[in-house]
Model the fold of this input.
Amino acid sequence: MKKTVRIIVNLLILGMVAWAWALMLGHIGGRGLSRGGWGAMKYFTVLSNLLAGIAAAVWGVCALVKKEGGWPDRLKYVADVSVALTFLVVVVFLGPLFGYGSMFTQHNLFFHLLVPLFSMAEFMLLNETPMGRGDNALAVAPMLIYGAYYVGNAWINGVGKWPATNDWYGFLTWGWGVGVFIFFAIAGITYLAGLALRRINQKIASPKDGKAMAD
Done:
């Protein structure tokens, strides 16, 4: 029963990501992203949701051919932590700054709220593959890769000025030192988000026989 529920939830996640992309690119509703279609690929929000959709599809296919557990669940965990970071940034930083109304409209309703919530809930309540510290560290990798690209791109090509800026999140406004510190701080927050997800999962859904529990 739990497997069936999990397959359905992952199909919902995949469907929401696909729908949000269609809205973002203007294939539905006639309006694309205000800052330009495929150019939105530079945003971590979009990339983390894309990863969540890919992970949901991969997990669903593996579950249907009865190859559960192992790397598909770990891929799901990495994706879930990535969208958890997106959710936290929106709720704690962007929402108060720009207003929650603008954060939860059109495609952003899915990218900022629904996909992260469904992904986190699916992992915490239904995942039965224990995750350990190594998995927790691995879940920070997408953010670190993105951060390295973000800082490296601004360093090589210059910060630039709005709207043609390479510092589209404004993290380098206070200088390179502060900008790099912010990214390391976000890496720490990502790790803690992953830790919280796996601890809750261990208490709720992971096997309790003592043999499969992760550290």
